[in-house]
Amino acid sequence: TEVKGPANFPQLQNDTFLRAARGEETEHVPVWCMRQAGRYLPEFRESRAGKDFFETCQTPAACCELTLQPLRRFPFDAAIIFSDILVVPQAMGMDVQMVAGKGPTFPEPLKEPEDLQRLRVKVDVGKELGYVFKAITLTRHKIEGKVPLIGFTGAPWTLMSYMIEGGGSNTHSKAKRWLYRHPEASHMLLRMLTDVIVEYLLGQVAAGAQALQVFESHAGILGPVEFKEFALPYLRDIARRVKDKLKEAGQDVPMIVFAKDGHYALEDLSQSHYEVVGLDWTIDPQSARERTGGKVSLQGNMDPCALYAPKERISDIVKKMLEGFGTRAYIANLGHGLYPDMDPESVGAFVEAVHTHSRQMIKQK
Ligand SMILES: Cc1c2[nH]c(c1CCC(=O)O)Cc1[nH]c(c(CCC(=O)O)c1C)Cc1[nH]c(c(CCC(=O)O)c1C)Cc1[nH]c(c(CCC(=O)O)c1C)C2
């Protein structure tokens, strides 16, 4: 079979998501869900059954299929490539395995600053992560222009915390110990991650990604002071460098920053060269608008657990959320990813409620 390169992609038919990201007028509010390619879908569980998680990530055809599955069910306005944030530490030379019932696990996490020597000094991103680029190119063709394709990465602090903790954690105390005890080594690691991430994101755009989301999932474990020193500068550096390079090539790809539980940093995040700031459900929509002063588009932020409510209730919650954010410069989403036990029908109700209510609100303007 013919393998198509990153050119001559099908014409985009629904650019609602991209227009909202740029703050332009739309006919309805665009909507997608974090983890929309996930275990809440029976077809996802079937495709993944008996297969190693990271092997799946390394198989472009499998990533493409998993990315497309939610689009067959729901009229989402964007797709996000199936992959994981932990492919970046792997590319830097670390072993990461998916352990059933436990989640991602690093058999040999970083313990002390000397361990940084175990990481590759110069990462050949094209070689180590080329499989992600292939998955993006294939998916962009196979999506047939229905909706834009989002690429993503973990942010430096979030990836650093996994590399030191060795997996998920409640306290992140091993990683935070580095910040307080080894600040210079911490900055060195964060810089190394930033360099790889910048190249990784540029590679994703070259491969066909039409927007980029940076997941700072562990922002909430830091306070405002530590965030300003160890997270924000790197988030800004990533956006600045990616945008400068894209500009040289005459390209313009909207970037989203999602700092989970980083409400204390909202003002700073809205002035960090990202077009869109993603919000978790702990921030009230109206105050998020006030605090970001119309500088950025906002994305979020319904509590994923609201999907456990009856359909009519979901519709009411969505309506209030839309009234809080307004319909301009807004991308509806959940405040975090979907959980495996969620009912696909509730996800459908969420998407429909966003489209129906927002169309009505925009018509009445
Ligand atoms: C579906 C899935 C993924 N990763 C994992 C799963 C579940 C395991 C499986 O299906 O076998 C393991 C998987 N990967 C990770 C975890 C969390 C581990 C932990 O901290 O406890 C798990 C269970 C690490 C991870 N991975 C990711 C994040 C950032 C988002 C977030 O805050 O949740 C994080 C923190 C990103 C991610 N990961 C994934 C996507 C796909 C695209 C989509 O959203 O549809 C994305 C964007 C895919």
Automatic annotation (TrEMBL):
GO molecular function, one term: uroporphyrinogen decarboxylase activity
Subcellular location(s) of the protein: Cytoplasm
GO biological-process terms attached to the record: protoporphyrinogen IX biosynthetic process
Top EC group: lyase
Pathway(s) per entry: Porphyrin-containing compound metabolism; protoporphyrin-IX biosynthesis; coproporphyrinogen-III from 5-aminolevulinate: step 4/4
Main localization (coarse): cytoplasm
The reaction(s) this protein catalyses: uroporphyrinogen III + 4 H(+) = coproporphyrinogen III + 4 CO2; uroporphyrinogen I + 4 H(+) = coproporphyrinogen I + 4 CO2
Top-rank taxon, per record: Eukaryota
PROSITE patterns given in the database record: UROD_1, UROD_2
UniProt keyword terms in alphabetical order: Cytoplasm, Decarboxylase, Heme biosynthesis, Lyase, Porphyrin biosynthesis
Record-linked InterPro entries: UROD/MetE-like_sf (IPR038071), Uroporphyrinogen_deCO2ase_HemE (IPR006361), Uroporphyrinogen_deCOase (IPR000257)
Pfam families: URO-D
Residue ranges occupied by any Uroporphyrinogen decarboxylase (URO-D) domain in the UniProt entry: 30-39, 150-166
Gene3D superfamilies on file: 3.20.20.210
EC code(s) of this entry: 4.1.1.37
GO cellular component: cytosol
PANTHER family according to UniProt: METHYLTETRAHYDROFOLATE:HOMOCYSTEINE METHYLTRANSFERASE RELATED, UROPORPHYRINOGEN DECARBOXYLASE
Similarity-based family: Belongs to the uroporphyrinogen decarboxylase family.
Function, as annotated: Catalyzes the sequential decarboxylation of the four acetate side chains of uroporphyrinogen to form coproporphyrinogen and participates in the fifth step in the heme biosynthetic pathway. Isomer I or isomer III of uroporphyrinogen may serve as substrate, but only coproporphyrinogen III can ultimately be converted to heme. In vitro also decarboxylates pentacarboxylate porphyrinogen I.
Protein name: Uroporphyrinogen decarboxylase
